[in-house]
């Protein structure tokens, strides 16, 4: 596959001379009628802020995820819940307590395995819990296109209050547009002060019901198993509001929650079915992996014939191990499964090659994407060295903008740039700004992998000026 520079420029509605300049920066001295290969064309197009869709992509992916073909057959489905909160506030304890009191599948006291998600029953209704607490996994999955969580339970320890990771979790959840239920945990402790938690949450624009807001809150003790029923009722109440529905009669689609290579059983994946029903014998693709379902197992190890919407199941029969966050879909036959899997692996390789210079979250590219999409928000994650400068920066950035575009800061925090910041930025197509702080090694690696731009500043004026320029489309891409 090749294309002339002229043709490429035409398709992008860009000037040929600009394309030639970019190619020069790549070390290629070419003229307008010369041809370049598809990879280089993609790289250039992305550099100029275009979203590249190769024809083959729509051919291959077409019809794989058929959103919108479910009218008429929609029935309610259980909510899928993720638990988040600060370290040691009791996320794991809460997950364990809920699991051991309420496991839906299997007999009480039966051996349950950690397969990455489980279901419980409350008042005859099912609720699915994702078994990996914290916002890291949540956001990592989201950055891979998966939206697996309907409701987030935010755990705040009543003796410790709102902490930095609590705030991070709030921002990650908000960026995903997922409703929060607050679980004020450890109320058994003598120094528990639930009221302080409620007040502190106000600062982060979470107004709980008892203070006149609409965020549900429940005081619990994971340790003494107090009010777990109430918490589950709150989840059901919230999910009623969300009117969660899916069509169980179509071929299954969903998200991979966990993937591992098991010595005895081969590749094993826990998947969350989100639409349709997954059956033994189905052929499915997940990312670059495919397989024929040999067996479906619940968290209690029971073999089942099928799994409907919001059900987590272990799938045996993959040829390779899919990754957490991969979306899966059932396809008509093996040939199709191979075709999609091969194609995706190829695209993944190509993207990895092209990435280095085509940062997805670069300020300039984000601007041109914004222009194309007609969206009006310039999304940023801001990290600063001290609270004072952070507030000054956020204040200044929020004042920028006009009717066409304004900055939206989805997360601001004190401290170095972490992998979690990059993950959030990637999931939200945001850029990261660091003021007097650096990125950790992991964060730098993740930013390269995910193509998220990190910009560092030590003068507030420069920072604000750059964003202003980017917003007016004047910032030249860094190459
Ligand atoms: P995570 O880091 O958020 O997953 O927190 P853990 O579930 O590991 O809990 C941290 C510590 O708090 C552990 O020592 C738990 O036993 C304790 N803990 C959790 N929930 C409660 C609770 O409701 N009451 C009391 N007193 N301790 C709790």
Automatic annotation (TrEMBL):
<keyword id="KW-0963">Cytoplasm</keyword>
<keyword id="KW-0342">GTP-binding</keyword>
<dbReference type="GO" id="GO:0003743">
    <property type="term" value="F:translation initiation factor activity"/>
</dbReference>
<feature type="region of interest" description="G-domain">
    <location>
        <begin position="79"/>
        <end position="227"/>
    </location>
</feature>
<keyword id="KW-0547">Nucleotide-binding</keyword>
<comment type="similarity">
    <text>Belongs to the TRAFAC class translation factor GTPase superfamily. Classic translation factor GTPase family. IF-2 subfamily.</text>
</comment>
<feature type="binding site">
    <location>
        <begin position="131"/>
        <end position="135"/>
    </location>
    <ligand>
        <name>GTP</name>
    </ligand>
</feature>
<dbReference type="GO" id="GO:0005525">
    <property type="term" value="F:GTP binding"/>
</dbReference>
<feature type="binding site">
    <location>
        <begin position="85"/>
        <end position="92"/>
    </location>
    <ligand>
        <name>GTP</name>
    </ligand>
</feature>
<keyword id="KW-0648">Protein biosynthesis</keyword>
<keyword id="KW-0396">Initiation factor</keyword>
<feature type="binding site">
    <location>
        <begin position="185"/>
        <end position="188"/>
    </location>
    <ligand>
        <name>GTP</name>
    </ligand>
</feature>
<protein>
    <recommendedName>
        <fullName>Translation initiation factor IF-2</fullName>
    </recommendedName>
</protein>
<dbReference type="GO" id="GO:0005829">
    <property type="term" value="C:cytosol"/>
</dbReference>
<dbReference type="GO" id="GO:0003924">
    <property type="term" value="F:GTPase activity"/>
</dbReference>
<comment type="function">
    <text>One of the essential components for the initiation of protein synthesis. Protects formylmethionyl-tRNA from spontaneous hydrolysis and promotes its binding to the 30S ribosomal subunits. Also involved in the hydrolysis of GTP during the formation of the 70S ribosomal complex.</text>
</comment>
<feature type="domain" description="Tr-type G">
    <location>
        <begin position="76"/>
        <end position="245"/>
    </location>
</feature>
């Amino acid at each position: 596959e090749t294309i002339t520079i002229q043709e490429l420029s035409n398709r992008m509605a860009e000037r040929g001379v600009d394309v030639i300049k970019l190619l020069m920066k790549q070390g290629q001295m070419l003229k307008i009628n010369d041809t370049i290969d598809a990879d280089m064309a993609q790289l250039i197009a992305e550099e100029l802020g275009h979203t590249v869709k190769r024809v083959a992509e729509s051919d291959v992916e077409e019809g794989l995820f058929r959103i919108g073909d479910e009218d008429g057959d929609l029935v309610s489905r259980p909510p899928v819940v993720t638990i988040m909160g600060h370290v040691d506030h009791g996320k794991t304890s809460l997950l364990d307590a809920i699991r051991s009191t309420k496991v839906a599948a299997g007999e009480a006291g039966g051996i349950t395995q950690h397969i990455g998600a489980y279901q419980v029953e409350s008042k005859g209704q099912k609720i699915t819990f994702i078994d990996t607490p914290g916002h890291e996994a949540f956001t990592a999955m989201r950055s891979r296109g998966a939206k697996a969580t309907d409701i987030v339970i935010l755990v705040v320890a009543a003796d410790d209050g709102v902490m930095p990771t609590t705030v991070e979790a709030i921002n990650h959840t908000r960026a995903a547009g997922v409703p929060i239920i607050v679980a004020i945990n450890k109320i058994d402790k003598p120094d528990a002060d639930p009221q302080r938690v409620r007040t502190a949450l106000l600062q982060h624009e979470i107004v709980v019901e008892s203070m006149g807001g609409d965020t549900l809150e429940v005081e619990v003790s994971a340790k003494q198993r107090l009010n777990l029923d109430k918490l589950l009722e709150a989840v059901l109440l919230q999910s009623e509001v969300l009117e969660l529905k899916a069509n169980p009669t179509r071929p299954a689609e969903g998200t991979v929650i966990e993937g591992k290579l098991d010595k005895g059983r081969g590749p094993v994946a826990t998947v969350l079915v989100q639409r349709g029903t997954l059956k033994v014998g189905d052929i499915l693709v997940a990312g670059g992996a495919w397989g024929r379902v040999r067996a479906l197992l619940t968290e209690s190890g029971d073999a089942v014939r099928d799994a409907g919407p919001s059900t987590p199941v272990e799938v045996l029969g993959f040829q390779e191990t899919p990754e957490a966050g991969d979306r899966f879909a059932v396809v008509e036959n093996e040939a199709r499964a191979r075709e999609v899997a091969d194609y995706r692996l190829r695209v993944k390789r190509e993207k990895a090659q092209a990435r280095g210079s085509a940062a997805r979250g670069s300020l300039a590219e984000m601007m041109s994407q914004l222009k194309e999409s007609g969206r009006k928000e310039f999304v940023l994650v801001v990290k600063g060295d001290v609270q004072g400068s952070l507030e000054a920066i956020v204040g200044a950035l929020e004042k920028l903008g006009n009717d066409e575009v304004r900055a939206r800061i989805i997360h601001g925090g004190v401290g170095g740039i972490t992998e979690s910041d990059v993950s959030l930025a990637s999931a939200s197509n945001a850029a990261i700004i660091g003021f007097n702080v650096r990125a950790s090694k992991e964060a730098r690696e993740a930013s390269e992998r995910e193509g998220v731009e990190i910009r560092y500043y030590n003068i507030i004026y420069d920072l604000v000026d750059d964003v202003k320029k980017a917003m007016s489309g004047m910032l030249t891409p860094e190459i």
